[in-house]
Design brief:
By secondary structure, the protein is mostly helical. It has helices spanning about 5-20, 25-65. The longest helix has about 40 residues, at about 25-65.
């Protein structure tokens, strides 16, 4: 692996950072809201699945004792 002189490295890093496209405040807000909504929907889904499995297990175990 070829060694790079520190000055060249810093120049390359600055060139790469200049290529970064930062999201707008609106994009960040919308993405954050979408994450919270999807997290809530996922929590509700798994809560319902948990309730169904628990109910089914209790009814099966209730038949045996």
């Amino acid at each position: 692996m070829a060694t790079t002189n520190p000055l060249q490295f810093i120049q390359q890093v600055r060139a790469e950072v200049a290529k970064v496209v930062w999201p707008t405040r609106r994009e960040v807000l919308l993405t954050t809201v979408m994450v919270f909504i999807l997290a809530a929907l996922t929590a509700v889904f798994f809560a319902i699945v948990d309730i169904l499995i628990r109910g089914g297990l209790q009814s099966v175990l209730g038949m045996f004792g």
